[in-house]
Amino acid sequence: MATIGFIGLGVMGHAMARNLLRAGHALQVHDLNSKAVATLVSDGATDASSCKGAAKGAEFVITMLPDGPDVELAVFGDDGVLEGLQKGALFINMSTILPDITISIGERLKAKGYAMVDAPVGLSSQHAIEGTLLIMAGGETADVERARPVLAKMGRTIVHTGPVGTGSAIKAINNQMASSVAAATAEALNLAQPCG
């Protein structure tokens, strides 16, 4: 089992982190919401107190945050992931962010000697609870394969989409498709309503 830093314990992240704990991984967690941290600590996680603390001694560091600037701050800010990242550790961003920000983060980490996998998720919070998410993973083949056993505790379907940035791109396309289907369904129901 691995030591994993997990940053971002919102509705999705909390469920994903819990599944890693249940799988037997040692989890170092951080979130601005102390209650979210406390519930996982009561289940056996360690309160890392900062992004740097989450990364310290971890083989994998995962971020699940609301937006690109949040990920950049978590990685490169004061007491950020980069300050605690050990040699050979793999950074995995599972947040849904813009592809160009993803690529920029990957390039900045690569310049420091670290590898990244961008692995945003699809489906719902219930799938996060069940550990059956769709995961779209961008990165070098060896890095994605290294991450796969960890990702498999959170998702049922893991698709290697190509290099860093393609996971985020495919997630954006997936969101657009889902929105289009939802809009078409709503229009069809609206048309059908007068027909009884």
Q: What is the CA-CA span between the terminal residues?
A: 57 Å
Main β-sheet: number of strands, strand sense, barrel status? 6 strands, parallel
**Quaternary organisation of the protein chains:** single chain
**Strand order in the sheet with the most strands:** 3-2-1-4-5-6
Radius of gyration (Å)? 17 Å
Helix % is 40-55%
Beta-strand percentage?
15-25%
Which parts are unreliable, with pLDDT below 50 for 5 consecutive residues or more?
Answer: none
Question: Which series of helices and strands comes N to C?
Answer: EHEHEHEHHEHEEHEHEH
Secondary structure class reads: alpha/beta
- Continuous helix count: 9
Count of DSSP strands: 9
Identify the overall geometry: globular
Mean pLDDT: 92
Q: Can you tell me about this structure?
A:
This protein has 196 residues and is α/β, with parallel strands linked by helices. Helix content is 48%, strand content 20%. It is globular and about 65 Å long. It starts with a strand and ends with a helix.
In short:
This protein is α/β, with parallel strands linked by helices and 196 residues long. The protein has 9 helices and 9 strands. It has a 6-stranded parallel sheet, sandwiched between helices.
Fold topology:
Layout: E1 3-7, H1 11-22, E2 26-30, H2 34-41, E3 46-47, H3 51-55, E4 60-63, H4 68-76, H5 81-84, E5 90-93, H6 99-111, E6 115-118, E7 121-122, H7 125-130, E8 133-138, H8 141-151, E9 155-162, H9 166-192
Parallel strand pairs: 1-2, 1-4, 2-3, 4-5, 5-6, 8-9
Antiparallel strand pairs: 7-8
